[in-house]
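lol forgot to send this yesterday, sorry. struct tokens for the thing we talked abt
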């Protein structure tokens, strides 16, 4: 079970309430519905703060670990086709599918005043989404089985036979693994990325239902290396695991950092309620809450990183839009090569 550091988060909540200058709201405020793939314990803490402060009824629909983000994205699409959108806000644990929804005309533009201090790389030029609170893609391992000296240093290294047979990877059709693979296609090109997948398969890579399942495979001794996100490693460490991690080079001197994203779904039932919730979700206060939770998302706001004493490794130069461009081809290749 994912446990939030209650004391730190409670302190952040109190600060947020003071900064907002209020703890309640109108009792007749319209309800707001959120589709959310951010891990439920962390997201509920944030949404509960908002609901208690504003008296707005917030209904949150979460996705499963195995189907992270993808299930909700498909739900938004199917409801749009039927002409019956059911949610007002999409709060995603990644950005790339949000970009695709925006391109498909399924998001309502909104330029939140609370996001004006977020760097432009993390704000859509057409105001369809805002990104924040990043997690890094990493390889994790037990130091007793793989030393830091022997661990891979580049993502391409994992496809070498000595690493592939010891590696576990979450299903690449879903979640951040899906986006990570698309980033490889965007940065490396089709032939190089397909060769990487083929070498992984031929080397005996294992597949798991999700990132946390990949980490559990390492803890159970079924694999020595797991491709995952930083939050899954932090949570395992907090539970007593002796895991280490490494940010691997994508090949351009940086690693992939994946932000969460917030957007208004086209045709919201409560537009003003959706805008007000978005203002809160993209705020400094929420980035601080997520940073001080066990998820330890790193703020995109440099001033907040300095305040909290947090930093991130060199970031790959691959463009977020290019990753979204490569998503379809990457998923097709993963299905053909790894999942046939």
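and heres what i got for the seq, position by position
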């Amino acid at each position: 079970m994912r446990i939030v550091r209650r004391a730190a988060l409670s302190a952040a909540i109190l600060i947020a309430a003071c900064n907002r200058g209020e703890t309640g709201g109108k009792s007749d405020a319209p309800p707001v519905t959120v589709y959310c793939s951010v891990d439920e314990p962390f997201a509920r803490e944030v949404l509960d703060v908002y609901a208690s402060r504003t008296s707005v009824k917030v209904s949150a629909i979460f996705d499963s670990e195995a189907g992270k983000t993808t299930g909700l994205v498909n739900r938004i699409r199917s409801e749009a086709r039927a002409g019956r959108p059911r949610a007002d806000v999409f709060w995603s644990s990644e950005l790339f599918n949000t970009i695709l929804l925006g391109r498909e005309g399924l998001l309502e533009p909104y330029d939140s005043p609370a996001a004006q201090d977020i760097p432009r790389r993390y704000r859509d030029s057409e105001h369809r989404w805002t990104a924040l609170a990043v997690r890094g893609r990493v390889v994790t391992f037990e130091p007793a089985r793989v030393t830091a000296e022997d661990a891979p240093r580049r993502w391409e290294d994992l496809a070498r036979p000595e690493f592939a047979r010891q590696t576990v990877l979450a299903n690449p059709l879903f979640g951040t693994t899906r986006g990570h693979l698309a980033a490889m296609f965007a940065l490396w090109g089709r032939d190089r990325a397909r060769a990487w997948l083929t070498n992984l398969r031929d080397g005996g890579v294992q597949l798991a239902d999700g990132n946390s399942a990949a980490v559990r495979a390492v803890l159970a001794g079924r694999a020595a290396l797991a491709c995952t996100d930083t939050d899954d490693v932090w949570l395992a460490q907090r539970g007593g695991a002796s895991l280490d991690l490494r940010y691997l080079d994508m090949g351009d001197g940086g690693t992939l950092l994946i932000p969460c994203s917030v957007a208004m779904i086209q045709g919201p039932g409560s537009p003003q309620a959706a805008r007000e919730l978005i203002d809160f979700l993209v705020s400094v206060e929420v980035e601080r809450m997520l940073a001080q939770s066990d998820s330890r998302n790193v703020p995109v706001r440099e001033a907040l990183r300095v305040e909290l004493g947090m930093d991130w490794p060199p970031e790959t130069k691959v463009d977020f839009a290019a990753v979204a461009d490569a998503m379809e081809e990457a998923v097709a290749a993963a299905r053909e090569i790894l999942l046939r």
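The longest helix spans residues 320-337. anyway ping me if u want another try
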